[in-house]
Design a protein that fits this description.
heterodimer, A: alpha+beta, Peroxisomal Thiolase, Chain A, domain 1, ten-stranded mixed sheet, two-stranded antiparallel ribbon, 12 strands, B: alpha/beta, Rossmann fold, 2 domains, six-stranded parallel sheet, 13 strands, 39% helix
Chain lengths: 431, 439
Amino acid sequence: MASQSSPRAPRRVAVLGGNRIPFARSNGPYAKASNQDMLTATVDGLVARFGLAGERLGEVVAGAVLKHSRDFNLTRETVLGTRLDPATPAYDVQQACGTGLEAAVLVANKIALGQVDAGVAGGVDSASDAPIAVSEGLRQTLLAVNRARSAGERAKALTGLRPGHLVPAIPENVEPRTGLSMGEHMALTAAQWGITREAQDELAAASHRHLAAAYERGFFDDLVTPYLGVSRDTNLRADSTVEKLSTLKPVFGKGDGATMTAGNSTPLTDGASAVLLASEEWAAEHRLTPLAWFVDAETAAVDYVHGDEGLLMAPAYAVPRLLARNGLSLQDFDFYEIHEAFAATVLTTLKAWEDPDFCRERLGLDAPLGSIDRGRLNVNGSSLAAGHPFAATGGRIVASLAKQLKEAGGGRGLISICAAGGQGVVAILEA
Amino acid sequence: MTDLFTTIVSSPVARRVGVPQPTRLRRYEPGMPLCEGPVLVAGGGRFADGIAAWLGGEGVAAVSTLPDSGDKVGAVVLDLSAATDPAELDQLRLLGAPAVKALRRNGRVVVIGTDPATLTDVAEVTTQRALEGAVRSIGKELRSGATANLVLAQGDARDGVRSAVEFFLSGRSAYVDGQVVRVDESTSVDVDALRPLDGKVAVVTGAARGIGAEIARVLARDGATVVAVDVPSAGDALAKVANEVRGTALQLDVTADDAGSRIVEHATTRHGGLDVVVHNAGITRDKLFVNMDDDRWRSVMEVNLRSVLRMNDAILGEGGLADGGRIVCVASIAGIAGNRGQTNYGASKAGVIGLVTALSRQVAGRGITVNAVAPGFIETEMTARIPFATREIGRRMNSLQQGGHPKDVAETIAWFAQPGSAAVTGQVVRVCGQSLLGA
């Protein structure tokens, strides 16, 4: 009788590197580039950097938040257009702004379990080349016409058409269950937590300053590949200051208490990113040196519809669970990458972790997680400066943090990404 | 890259009215015979027998006299290395003239001499030095894509002579004409003729486009693993080249202080070694000398010359280029002849020639060779932007009456890189179709 095979021990997962195209503000230089175009260029850049032409990888996992219905197999179609071996499988994931990091978690888990040896995790989004759908009324009418069996029935079905049906449905940055935009949601949370305009502008200015400095010292030389004539993120304002940012008018929130401006909120952005993950053995066989290890990840969700939690507060819940599982405190990190959906998101999250009541009542902790050394936060800039092509942000952060850890000669980094639908994906990297 | 003018002057009408038509050059493709038709090997020098035997082994008929049938020959190899008196130069005429007359389209004249620098007797030096003038003149007389080149042997340079003769006979040297190459007594081992660079790791700077991209392709075709290097802002084009040749892309500015060490680190950690470095990256910033500004002068010097010096320090350091390695620089005929508006560029490229001369001696003990190509008018995106009249003159003012291709430059570099070219060092080979400039 055959003996039952015993489960294998999980393997360490290496982050070998990444690639992204420069992020560009929407309706700018990438206005006519499709998600597939951008993701293909990004994966091909990764292939070139790591000499993977003709290589069959375990899988490529990626996704887009704003997605055309024709792109039902976006990632697989992308792989077929790259220099990777066409025998490389691929699938799409979609978890709003958490897509890129969730893709990395999925690939990492398969590597850890020995199901694949190497894979690419990525994400892409175009806010310019956005899908536009017909209105629900027109769609129902057209479906009725399609079901009709005779000319008479078809004519009858068409009588259901109303002028208002001809207005197309354009995707909006709005939560379906509340009708509020993400910015409006964040403004509520920011007001609730008393996040000041000054603090937000300071965070935004630091993001631009850090990103510009990272470009200057060549940090992105092996993380970014130019695309369509763009070689730096177009949203980056190296000369941004708190003074300049303070002159902008608020765009989210109401009345005198409104603090959120176009300067301390991320703009709609086009772009793509990808990271290469692998087992230690695969890395060694391919003579590639790991930048960092993908240690663990956690996803949380909050009830922002019926409960009284903010839309973008899920990472505040995910992080303590991840820390507890790994026996770590919030202060045990050398670098923190907290995605700057809005400056207020980062500040609220940090404030919540410092708040004894929140930590006790919401997180069920005896003591607050405490504060972090702000000098370790988003040290190479984040989404306020780089921009935020929704699904591409996770890949940008994983690759940049891994390289930062390698450059620092080792250490531990925390990634926190909030997502629409009240979700949050967080992860730990170590080098 | 065909413009309207080229279309017109190469039309059947233009041909009928007598506009000179450039011959389609026979360019190397893997598997192509070395030479089309028999090769006349004569002259009685110390290398002739070896060359004839080697040609036979390559499946090329070597004959010692012209065929009685009047059939044409693919090439003539005249070994006059033993000539010691000017009277013996008659042999060049007596053997060479009928052979040149019987030369096929894209034929080859290769003369072997003894390097005058290794001789002391005045008559001998005179005799051997005379060969150069004769060969260069033959080159200017040849038509139909034929070329004439001279190999000067230092001592018993059998392997070197063979390597150079092979290069000049083959389609690899399609646009190399009127050149003199010196070869020393270094020996080399036989390698797979179809993949002479198998197992070698080659770095090419400026590889994103033009000549650099073609160098990457040719080195990869010959078996090398290629590291394609270019500035980060050219990264998208670079990625395409790297993926096409199944190599790796390294985005890096060659003027960075650590460029050399980063190249070495990438090549050794990713590919396990470094065997060939091609310093191709280069820029032009033209301005008349009296109007030349600080930025134009310095940037050209920095990219074309000083970065090469700096990178070589790291490349030739501990754990860098392997013994028996190859460094190839890209000079220019502007570095030989000078060019109006290019004091900066001409200086940098002439400097490269000096670098090759000096460095080749310094590293000879490690079996490393250092050579340069000096391209003439090569059809690239860059030359396509030259004003029409200047471009046509540049294109036509050479013995082959046409511009060269990036591949022609790349093939010469690939020849320098071959293990079989161990005896070729300190050389500057012009890939210019025997341009009148700087001749």
